Amino acid sequence: MKMILGFFPVIVIISLAPFVYASDPSPLQDFCVAVGDSAAAVFVNGKICKNPNMVVAEDFFFSGLNKPGNTSNAVGSRVTAVNVNQIPGLNTLGISAVRIDYAPQGINPPHTHPRATEILVVVEGTLYVGFVTSNPANKLFTKYLYPGDVFVFPEGLIHFQYNVGKTNAYAFAGLSSQNPGVITIANSVFGSDPPINPNVLTKAFQVEKDVIDKLQAQF
Questions:
Q1: How many other CB atoms are found less than 10 A from the CB of residue 156?
Q2: Ranges of residues in the chain whose predicted pLDDT is under 70
Q3: Phi/psi of residue 42, nearest 5 degrees
Q4: What does the entry list as the binding residues for oxalate (predicted)?
C-alpha cells in the first residue's frame, strides 16, 4: 500500500500471518468455578462462573479414579471421566482426565474428541492403540503399549485402544479441554436418533440394506 506523508512517498508493507490458533478460552482470573447448568440463567460457550466468595476446596476435587470401572458391557471397557462436569474448578482451565478400564479383549471403540488432544499412559496390561489421519491419506499409526508407555492421539482424529492381553488392563489419559467431547463412530453412524436413512448408509458403505438394518438394530 502506498501512502503520502508530506512530500515523501512511503511504501507500507502489510504482513498477514497465515496462522490461526484455537483452544479452550484462557482464564481472565485465578479461577472460574462452573455453576451447574440447572442453576444457570443463561447459556454460554462453556459455563458461567460461581461467585468467588462461595468457592470451596471441593470445587477442585474428585475422588475415585483408583476404583476400576465396570467393564461388563458389549465392548468390554469403561471410561471414567473427570471433566468440568465432575470438577467445576476445571472451567476455563483447558484440561481434563479419564481412567479407562479394559476387560481381556476389551476395546475402547474407534472414536474422536472434537475439542481435545489426548495423551494416554498405560498402568497395567498390554494395549494395541492407534489413530487414523484425515482424508485423503487416511494413514494408520499403531503401537503396542506396555505399563509406563505413553501415546498421543491428536485432536479430532479417530483413535482406539484394544486390550490384547488375557488379563484386565487400565490406563489414564489427560485431554486438552475442560470438556473434550466424544463421538463414538459406530454409535453415531448406526445409532443416531432418528436413524440415518438406510439408503445413505448403503451407498456410503457399499453394502446391502440388510447389513445396515442389522447394524442399526444393534445400536
A1: 15
A2: 1-29, 37-45
A3: -135, 160
A4: 108, 113, 118
